[in-house]
């Protein structure tokens, strides 16, 4: 296939999923959702084809103009567009895709900031998927977004199931927008700033970091942590989504 104007396979981070059971698994996860679907990074259409059998409006995008033209010819009933996942509107209720590993973090950040969509099923690096659901401890990104989204790890995908084979395994990550947010959307920017302050702040223990970040005295910070059910000996990565939200509500 001719080289894309945007670069070759290495520049585009293209590792194509060829494992039929995993393609079926992704399709079944999407089947459990409702509404139009947007597929990011359609490539040669290995996932686009089974998604099209769901008989729902489907838009598939890819940055490689040659693959877009081929896929349009193969799947004329699917809307296929040449577009960048970092720029195309994420305006469908369901977002799905095999995300190039080098774009995982910017795609996730953009997705979690975008309004409107309800469900996302993403194939990412295994470690990224584990971190998003808090295996081994939560990350700042997850803590900042968890009041509005639920994360579920849906399986590990061997590197052997891709062509060319990447250096690490993949992970299936499902993200669902909460029907009832744990924190009001109007408070999101302030809440994210608070979480960042706790994760990056200095102090002798969680109580002093919370006190400094929230500009409270140590007794008030200690009381808020206790009422939220948070052990002051914990690290920020140990705090659950509901504990973060409860702590935030008490501090406000």
Automatic annotation (TrEMBL):
UniProt-listed Gene3D superfamilies: Vaccinia Virus protein VP39 (3.40.50.150)
Pfam family, one: RrnaAD
Residues in Ribosomal RNA adenine methylase transferase N-terminal domain copies: 22-179
Domain of life: Bacteria
PROSITE patterns on file: SAM_RNA_A_N6_MT
Keywords recorded for this protein, A-Z: Methyltransferase, RNA-binding, S-adenosyl-L-methionine, Transferase
Residues the record lists as binding S-adenosyl-L-methionine: 15, 17, 41, 62, 84, 98
UniProt record, GO biological process: methylation
UniProt GO MF annotations: methyltransferase activity
Family: Belongs to the class I-like SAM-binding methyltransferase superfamily. rRNA adenine N(6)-methyltransferase family.
Classification via NCBIfam families: Erm23S_rRNA_broad
PANTHER family xref list: DIMETHYLADENOSINE TRANSFERASE (PTHR11727), DIMETHYLADENOSINE TRANSFERASE-RELATED (PTHR11727:SF7)
Official protein name in the record: 23S ribosomal RNA methyltransferase Erm
Organism per entry: Microbacterium bandirmense
Organism placement in taxonomy: Bacteria, Bacillati, Actinomycetota, Actinomycetes, Micrococcales
Gene (name only): erm
């Amino acid at each position: 296939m001719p080289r894309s104007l945007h670069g070759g396979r290495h520049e585009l981070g293209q590792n194509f999923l060829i494992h039929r059971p995993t393609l079926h698994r992704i399709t079944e996860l999407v089947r459990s959702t409702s509404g139009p679907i947007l597929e990011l990074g359609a490539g040669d259409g290995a996932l686009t084809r089974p998604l099209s059998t769901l008989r729902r409006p489907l838009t598939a995008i890819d940055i490689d103009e040659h693959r877009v033209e081929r896929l349009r010819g193969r799947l004329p009933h699917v809307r296929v567009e040449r577009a960048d996942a970092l720029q195309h509107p994420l305006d469908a209720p369901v977002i799905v895709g095999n995300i190039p590993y080098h774009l995982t973090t910017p795609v996730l950040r953009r997705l979690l900031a975008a309004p409107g969509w309800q469900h996302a099923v993403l194939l990412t690096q295994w470690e990224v998927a584990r971190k998003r659901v808090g295996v081994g401890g939560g990350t700042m990104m997850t803590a900042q977004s968890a009041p509005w989204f639920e994360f579920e790890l849906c399986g590990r995908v061997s590197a052997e199931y891709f062509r060319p084979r990447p250096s690490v395994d993949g992970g299936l990550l499902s993200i669902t927008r909460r029907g009832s947010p744990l924190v009001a959307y109007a408070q999101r920017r302030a809440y994210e700033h608070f979480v960042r302050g706790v994760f990056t702040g200095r102090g002798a223990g969680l109580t002093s970091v919370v006190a400094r970040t929230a500009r409270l005295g140590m007794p008030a910070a200690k009381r808020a942590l206790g009422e939220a059910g948070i052990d002051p000996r914990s690290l920020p990565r140990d705090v659950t989504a509901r504990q973060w939200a409860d702590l935030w509500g008490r501090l406000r």
